[in-house]
Amino acid sequence: MQAEDLRLFIPSLNFQESSRFYEALGFNKTEVNDELAIFVNGGVTFFLQNHFNQEFAQNLMMQLIVKDIQAALNTIQQIKDITFKFEPIKQEHWGKVIYLWGPAGELWHITELNS
């Protein structure tokens, strides 16, 4: 088997708020229907679903690799009127990371890897 892509289905507690959150992060939204939207940024694509399961959402972790972690932090810090949290940039032996919890509790590891 030769894999070409992996696309996650991310839950939302509030579909509209989560949609605004991902658009504020720089993802472009395409609505599929009232229950599903596709978000794209560069070569990264995922589905946002109008469905919530607390246990799943709070255990979901994803890594998003970026070229410029400071630019990512600047974008995150400009998001207003949406419930989410994040930790500032941390230096690890493999690179830098921002831990970002989305509106449903999903955890993103925004990562800039060492060259």
Could you please describe the fold and organization of this structure?
It is a single chain. By secondary structure, this protein is an alpha+beta fold. The protein has a single domain, classed as 2,3-Dihydroxybiphenyl 1,2-Dioxygenase, domain 1 (Roll), CATH 3.10.180. The protein has helices at residues 15-24, 54-57, 69-77; strands at 9-11, 28-33, 36-41, 44-49, 61-65, 85-86, 90-92, 95-101, 107-113. Strand 2 and strand 3 (36-41) form a beta hairpin. The longest helix is centred in the first third of the chain and has 10 residues, at 15-24. The relative contact order is 0.22.
Count, helices: 3
Sheet/helix structural class: alpha+beta
CATH topology name: 2,3-Dihydroxybiphenyl 1,2-Dioxygenase, domain 1
The helix/strand order is EHEEEHEHEEEE
Q: CATH class, anyone?
A: Alpha Beta
Total number of domains: 1
What would you give as the CATH superfamily?
Answer: 2,3-Dihydroxybiphenyl 1,2-Dioxygenase, domain 1
Main sheet overview? 5 strands, mixed
What helical percentage do the residues reach? Answer: 10-25%
Global morphology: globular
Provide mean pLDDT, rounded: 97
- Using the CA coordinates, give the radius of gyration: 14 Å
Amino-to-carboxy terminus distance: 29 Å
Extended strand count: 9
**Could you list the spans in which at least 5 consecutive residues all have pLDDT below 50?**
none
CATH architecture: Roll
Q: Beta-strand percentage? A: 35-45%
What labels describe this entry?
single chain, 115 residues, alpha+beta, 2,3-Dihydroxybiphenyl 1,2-Dioxygenase, domain 1, five-stranded mixed beta sheet, four-stranded mixed beta sheet, 9 strands
